[in-house]
Design goal:
alpha+beta; 4 helices; 11 strands; 44% strand
């Protein structure tokens, strides 16, 4: 399933392998407070639900993940469209098991300066250039150069409310391929310990490869923390 592999790539790039942050000394106080990492990480077990639409549309896949379990017992398929799909997903996730992503670490994705893109009584949206994982492959680094990102802060709670990655314009990763649309949006919710975590990630990608159009949409939900 093409969408599943895109999904795994996004988790690796955007959520679980954050780097050292840019110097935040000149960031607005609201942003600095929202991304002040508490380091309170119980390493929860959780369920991940994958929902696909487009060419790879299928019934949702539900996976139980326990990072604290012994290797080989960390991932369990709770439901899948068929046995083969479930086994493929289990192998993909088992190769690199991670805990949930914390929203107060999202500042570590900021490569340099930030701009206040939207300011209302309820929210502030900061725009910035994102940076790739330190061990990202060259093709991933090239794509990140074309991405723009946003972080939304809830003024009432002074916490991150969500984030967004997107391509402002089409991008050609190869002569025979073109990505016309790429957008990743994430939402935050409170974990049982009160710390905000990344509760869902929605991904849309549309383009052409080798003369064939493709369009995929993936929703990942992280729930039932325990």
């Amino acid at each position: 399933m093409q969408a599943r592999h895109i999904s795994a790539l996004l988790l690796g790039l955007l959520l679980v392998s954050l780097n050292a942050a840019a110097d935040p000394s000149e960031w607005p106080d609201l942003l600095k407070e929202a991304v002040s990492n508490t380091d309170d990480d119980p390493n929860y077990a959780y369920d991940m639900v994958l929902e696909f639409s487009g060419e790879d549309a299928a019934a949702p896949i539900r996976v139980a993940i326990d990072p604290k379990a012994e290797p080989g017992a960390q991932v369990s398929i709770l439901s899948a469209p068929d046995e083969d799909t479930g086994q493929d997903v289990k192998e993909d996730i088992s190769s690199d098991v991670d805990g949930i992503g914390w929203c107060d670490t999202l500042g570590e994705m900021i490569a340099d300066s930030v701009n206040l893109a939207k300011d209302t009584a309820q929210i502030a949206v900061f725009e910035f250039k994102p940076k790739p994982n330190e061990d990202a492959e060259e093709r991933e680094r090239k794509m990140f150069k074309h991405l723009q990102a946003e972080l939304t802060i809830d003024k009432a709670t002074r916490r991150a409310k969500g984030f967004r990655y997107y391509l402002p314009e089409p991008y050609k990763p190869a002569i025979i391929a073109k990505i016309n649309e790429f957008e990743v949006t994430g939402a935050c919710d409170d974990a049982p310990n009160g710390r905000p975590y990344i509760s869902s990630v929605s991904t849309k990608i549309r383009g052409n490869a080798m003369g064939q159009a493709f369009s995929e949409s993936i929703v990942q939900r992280f729930e039932n923390l325990r």
